[in-house]
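Why should sequence recovery work at all? Because a backbone constrains its sequence more than one might expect. Tight turns favour small or flexible residues, buried strands favour hydrophobic ones, and helices have their own preferences. The token representation captures these environments compactly. In the example below, the structure is given first.
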């Protein structure tokens, strides 16, 4: 009896592996799509549209405050500090000038502080993007309630499909893709340097990323492919998720830049660098800007090497905005190839909130989402103009990416996600108030 059970399990495993290899992995290796993902997305769109109509029909009029209130809680004044404090002092005989301080001045700073907390442009970029309607995922069900038996049945069926069918399939594909990357690049690393080695290495990398994209049920649309990054340049893109690399590398190979890690990630990095000149740094080197700049300059100077892929924001933003670009990659004189990435949140939240989820939890959320649907725009190459410094160049590239992707262009540093506000920002407000009181410009 036990032997028969093992035989049955072995048969099921063989059938499962044959289906995965024959219908998904092999087509992915040759860059061919059999259309299963497109059919799945179309059926998913119809289902979500039906669920949205049922929810809208079942919802009752409520006078409660909506869950998302970006404005309206605090009345905002667009006047200067002097004008607003002047309004507070209307009933006070003392003028603004003359070095006099009145207690009511403190109310101005209290109001400004509370308004900044409520309408914080930085913190809200590190929370999941707000959805217009429920996409039948439990994790985005904060603003929706029980509507009908039909919607509940569809939701339960979706849970079964995502966790019992799609999740095992996606884990299998991810394991196959990463195994192929490690084994393939390790073997290619044994070959002497030649054009053949480069071609095989590129093929292995692209194949791996295509298989990993299948593991996410990714549907990617590339626009303006004539602007695809060229060798000897630097590709910069807005950063939403670690899978941004998978999304971009499906359409071509890149040299990665990053810190050397241990564990499984370290094994993958060491195998990759054997076949392709990726730029990995030790932790001590990452703090040395001159060493990093020299390594990057040496790489882009060789026009036979793949373009470097860099995410200048330095952290993941929630698919709604682009935040400050670090100037390092814009200061080495290389041609910059901007790329804008925009995910469709209807099918799954691609944003990685690293402060809330570790990498394993995040990947589990990705593999139990409906799909990853996104658009990628290749923008015309850009170069440093005469008289332009690296900061202005970085801002110009950032603005171009924001416009193309329909994202909000913010000047804030994404590093504020983990750091305290700089003392210089506080001192600036203090100096403005002090100059206003003592009557100096």
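From this structural description, the recovered sequence reads:
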């Amino acid at each position: 009896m036990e032997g028969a059970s093992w035989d049955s399990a072995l048969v099921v495993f063989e059938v499962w592996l044959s289906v995965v290899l024959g219908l998904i992995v092999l087509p992915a290796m040759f860059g061919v799509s059999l259309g299963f993902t497109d059919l799945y997305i179309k059926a998913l769109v119809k289902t979500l549209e039906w669920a949205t109509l049922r929810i809208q029909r079942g919802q009752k009029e409520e006078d409660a405050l909506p869950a998302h209130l970006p404005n309206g809680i605090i009345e905002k004044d667009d006047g200067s500090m002097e004008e607003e404090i002047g309004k507070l002092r209307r009933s006070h005989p003392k003028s603004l000038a003359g070095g006099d301080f009145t207690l009511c001045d403190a109310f101005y700073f209290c109001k400004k502080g509370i308004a900044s907390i409520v309408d914080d442009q930085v913190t809200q970029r590190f929370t999941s993007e707000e959805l217009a309607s429920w996409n039948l995922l439990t994790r985005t069900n904060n603003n929706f309630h029980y509507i009908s038996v039909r919607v509940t049945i569809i939701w339960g069926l979706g849970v079964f499909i995502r966790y019992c069918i799609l999740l095992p399939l996606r884990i299998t594909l991810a394991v196959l893709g990463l195994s192929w990357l490690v084994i393939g690049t390790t073997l290619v690393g044994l070959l002497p340097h030649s054009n053949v080695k480069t071609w095989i290495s590129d093929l292995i990398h692209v194949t791996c990323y295509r298989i990993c994209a299948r593991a996410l049920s990714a549907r990617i649309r590339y626009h303006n492919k004539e602007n695809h990054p060229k060798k000897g340049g630097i590709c910069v893109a807005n950063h939403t998720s670690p899978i941004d690399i998978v999304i971009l590398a499906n359409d071509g190979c890149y040299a990665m830049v990053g810190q050397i890690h241990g564990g499984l990630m370290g094994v993958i990095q060491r195998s990759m660098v054997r076949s392709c000149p990726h730029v990995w740094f030790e932790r001590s080197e990452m703090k040395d800007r001159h060493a990093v700049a020299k390594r990057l300059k040496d790489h882009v100077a060789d026009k036979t090497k793949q373009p470097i892929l860099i995410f200048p924001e330095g952290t993941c933003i929630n698919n709604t905005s682009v935040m400050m670009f670090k100037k390092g990659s814009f200061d080495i004189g290389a041609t910059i190839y901007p790329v804008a990435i925009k995910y469709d949140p209807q099918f799954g939240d691609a944003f990685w909130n690293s402060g809330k989820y570790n990498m394993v939890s995040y990947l589990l959320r990705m593999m139990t989402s409906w799909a990853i649907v996104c658009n990628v725009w290749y923008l015309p190459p850009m170069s440093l103009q005469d008289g332009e410094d690296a900061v202005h160049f970085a801002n110009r590239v950032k603005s171009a990416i924001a416009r193309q992707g329909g994202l909000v262009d913010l000047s804030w540093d994404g590093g504020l996600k983990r750091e305290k506000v700089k003392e210089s920002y506080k001192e600036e407000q203090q100096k403005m108030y002090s100059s206003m009181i003592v009557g100096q410009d």
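A few observations help interpret the result. The chain has 13 helices and nine strands.
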